[in-house]
Design goal:
Length: 249
Amino acid sequence: MVLLLWWGLNVSCDNSSNTSYLPPDVKICSAKDPKIDECFTNSANKMLKHLADGIPRLNAVQMEPLHFPLLSLEHNNSIFPSLAFNISDTVHRGWKDVVVLRSKVNPNAHELFFVLYAPQYFVGGKYEIAGSIIGIPTEGTGDMDVYFENCTLSVTVRGRLEDRNGEEYYVIVDAFQHSYYEKFQVDFKNLFNNTALSAVTNKVINYSYRPVLDALTPAIDQVFAVIYGPLAQRIFDRVPYRQLFTDLD
C-alpha cells in the first residue's frame, strides 16, 4: 500500500505549475505513453527513496521508521474468529529498501497493479493476544519483535471518481493484496504470561515457521491495508483526479 501513498503524494501539486514541490528526479507519467508502466515503475522507485525520510512540504510522513499507535483484530473477525490480537506503539522498519518490481497502470479505468519487494521488514512494539491460532490456545501480553525476510507484495487497486464542487476526486473502492514472505522470525515476550514457556514457544515457531506464517498472512495483509490505505485516501481527497496523470481521456 505504500505505493498508493506515493501515487497520492506524487500529485499533491499541479504538475504544470508546481513542479518545484516534487523531487526533481520524479517524473509524472502521461496516460498516453505506450511505456507508461515502465515510467510509473521508475518514478515510484525514485519517490520511495524520498519517502523514507518524509517530505514535510507534501505532508508526507516519515516511512523509515514508521510509527503506528494501535492495530486490532477483535474476536469474531473474518480472518481469525477465535482470536483477539492488539499491537500498540509499533515501529516499522524496512521501507528504505523497498523497490517496485513492476506495475500495470490504467489511468482512464482508475486501476493500478504493482508488485513490491522488500529484502527485510521489521515490526517492534507491544502485543496483547487471547484465543487460538491454527487450533493452538494462545494468550499473553508483553513486548514483541517480528522479522520478515524477502517479502513480495502484489497489490491491485480499483477506484471510482467522485464529483466535488465541479472537480473529480479519486476514491479507493477495492484494494487487494497478496503477500509472500520467505522467512519469518518472532520474539513474543511473556507468552502465556510465562517467561520460560514463552522462550520455548518462540523457538518452536521460529524452527517451523511456515505453517504459522501461511495462516497469519491474511491478517498481515489486513494490517498493511489498515496502515497504508487511509493514508493514501486522505491525500487523494485533497487532489483532483486530473492531476494524477497527464493526458487523460
